[in-house]
Amino acid sequence: MKNIKNNPNHIAIIMDGNGTWSKKKGLTKKEGHQKGVKSAKKIINYSLDEGIKNITLFALSNENLTRSKFELNNLFDIFFYSFTKEKKFLFDNKIKIKFIGNLNKLPKKIKDNALFLENETSKNKRLNLFIALNYGGKQDIIQAVTKAKKEKASFEKFLFSKNLPEVDLLIRTGGFRRLSNFLLWQISYAELYFTNVLWPDFKKNDFHRALSWYKNINRKFGKS
Q1: Is 77 a catalytic residue?
Q2: What topology is assigned to 10-215 in CATH?
């Protein structure tokens, strides 16, 4: 039985380093992203073992849409294949999946498949898996405020990320120490864990190291 005491309720991950990893291996970027998808599935499995209830993965930012058409097509192919292939995995492990971001700017097959998975897994309760797809924290807040002004309501109800609980632990792989416009509203008191390990190389021991680091922090939330 795993010791889940003091585990974070919500882990958000910036999965950085796929491109660097593929370059070091003499592989294509597409192969790096494919390896990154495999790493994501492993981390989801580890999270299930640890009793983590919420995970958010940063799969595609608003800024990523400025990449070359060739690279974007490769990414979209990987997303479509992954969503299709992993349906059974989601159902068998009672994972509820939710996509956050502006899906309207993505290829129709990606959006349709994402909405299908949301609907089919909506009653699952073991793990909430949020996938940030064409997402940006600033853009999320701006569009929510714009809608809230028209409706004269709280802007939080219009956030793409409105269903996310507060982030407890944010992990960024790949060596950079920045937030890259990720979940700006939900990370106000998150603990930030940065590692030089590239995402395709991020393994069970690396994940447990991040959890152990988190558990040793005395979280005060601004209080004495």
Answers
A1: no
A2: Undecaprenyl pyrophosphate synthetase (3.40.1180)
